[in-house]
Amino acid sequence: MEEKAISVTGLKKGFDGNEILKGIDFDLEKGENLVVLGKSGVGKSVLIKCIVKLIEPDDGDIEVLGTDIRSLHKDDELNEYRRKVGFLFQGGALYDAMTVEENMRFPLERLPNKPDNDEIEKRIEEALENVGLEDTRKKMPAELSGGMNKRIALARTLILQPQIMLYDEPTTGLDPATSKEISHLILEMQDKYKMSSVIITHDMKCAEITANRMKVIKDGVFAFEGSYDDLSSKDDPWLKNFFE
Amino acid sequence: MKITESLPDSLQKFLINIAGIGRYSALFFRQIFRGPLEIREIINQSYKLGYQSLFLVTTTGFIIGMVMTLQTKPTLEQFGAESWLPAMVSISIIREIGPVLTALVCAGKVGSGIGAELGSMKVTEQIDAMTVSGANSFNYLVVSRVIATSLMVPVLVFYADAVSLIGSYVGVNLEGDVSVQLFYHQSLGALVFSDIVPAVAKTFFFGFAIGIIGCYEGVNASKGTTGVGNAANRAVVISSMFIFVIDLMAVQLTQLFI
Ligand SMILES: Nc1ncnc2c1ncn2[C@@H]1O[C@H](COP(=O)(O)OP(=O)(O)OP(=O)(O)O)[C@@H](O)[C@H]1O
Ligand SMILES: [Mg+2]
């Protein structure tokens, strides 16, 4: 059997006795784009934060690239694992005390075998070129527009060349045209770097552009699954709300 | 019933806070021995912190030196002991007022700054972003800042002592005529080893407390804008309290050994 990019079984997580995720199961195949849909507050962000160990699940197994992530305890192992899994935060999370260039440099300079300066320069150049923002190098994050902010955040995540990408609502808060651009950018990067991705969104346009497969969370479990066309043609009234 | 459950809520929270600060201190020392330190960030933070508080430390130092001199003067005059004035003022400044006042000023200015800065980094997920990029955010953010405060608070105290003595000199000369040389002899000549060493040593602890408490409160800020405000506020309140506790312990220890 081929190794899965991500394999989650029976994932449970609650906060203060309030159960949010109630048994999540899913697999992410290599090279696949899985879109996860769900209403605000169902725990979509919590789900992918469990995958990068920002949040400890209460129960369940998470295997990523064949490794049970519970077996990662030492800081070095954990950091090495985290570099393989890119995470795009809902708000971008650019370091606002640093320029765009310093933002990009930050993770590279902290690699265990730090690349030399030329290599770092080359990778920053390439990353900014990928997102079409070469001229923002010296800018501070506060000077960027929302769309630019997301692009730079994407570039900063991709600079470590992760094998898996987790996108937390990459297009929320952007106008429709910019959302579309970002969605296409995600596809392009996917293709260029041969990554597997989980994309969380409630932007249907983004889902339509990027999804190979979709899953919908309802009440702490996955309630629907299928391609974009499958789901959009279903008769379920709850589900229909998303597609209107 | 567990004993912890019988305590009032706010006291429980406070104790949890103190325990967290203790754990943070342990992590700090572990990280220091593991290395590597973020030298550039330490320099950067030290510079920022010194620069931020220089003006405040200068004004408070100068004014305190002068005011103490002016207020002590009439009393000493009654006893005809005016020539002791510089010695009295310098001993109280160097032993006590300089270190404590400067540390409190830094707790207000620097401690709250650290709390607010890390707090907002926390709520905008910047700290999480560092973590998931495989970088050691504790080393970069916390260790650098704590080293910076531990080194810079003593420097600022030294500077504040000097400025206070200048203030005192000006105070003496408002209605009098004492030469710089005489003032220098009268004030610093009175100081002995046991005045200076404990006074210097405790400033490192003041700096450490300001740094580690500011960082702890910032990193543990709760979501939302009030979370950041509360973090900054707690950083100031708890570190000011620690400064007095450390000061008290320093006095006790000094009396034990000297
Ligand atoms: N660290 C935490 N501590 C306590 N509760 C949390 C924490 N993180 C998330 N929650 C709670 O878990 C629930 C799900 O949060 P989550 O951020 O995953 O929602 P979401 O599906 O991503 O929503 P959105 O689309 O608005 O981002 C929320 O009710 C939130 O209050
Ligand atoms: Mg979310």
TrEMBL record, chain A:
InterPro entries xrefs: AAA+_ATPase, ABC_transporter-like_ATP-bd, P-loop_NTPase
Keywords: ATP-binding, Nucleotide-binding, Transport
Boundaries of every ABC transporter domain copy: 6-244
MF-aspect GO terms: ATP binding; ATP hydrolysis activity
Top-level taxonomic group: Bacteria
Record Gene3D superfamilies: P-loop containing nucleotide triphosphate hydrolases
One Pfam family per UniProt: ABC_tran
PANTHER family reported for this sequence: PROTEIN TRIGALACTOSYLDIACYLGLYCEROL 3, CHLOROPLASTIC (PTHR43023:SF3)
Protein known as: ATP-binding cassette domain-containing protein
Automatic annotation (TrEMBL), chain B:
InterPro entries membership: Permease_MalE (IPR030802)
Record keywords: Membrane, Transmembrane, Transmembrane helix
GO terms under cellular component: ATP-binding cassette (ABC) transporter complex
GO molecular function: phospholipid transporter activity
Transmembrane segments: 54-72, 146-170, 190-214, 235-257
Record-linked Pfam families: MlaE (PF02405)
Domain of life of the native organism: Bacteria
Protein name from the UniProt record: ABC transporter permease
Organism whose genome encodes this protein: Fulvivirga sediminis
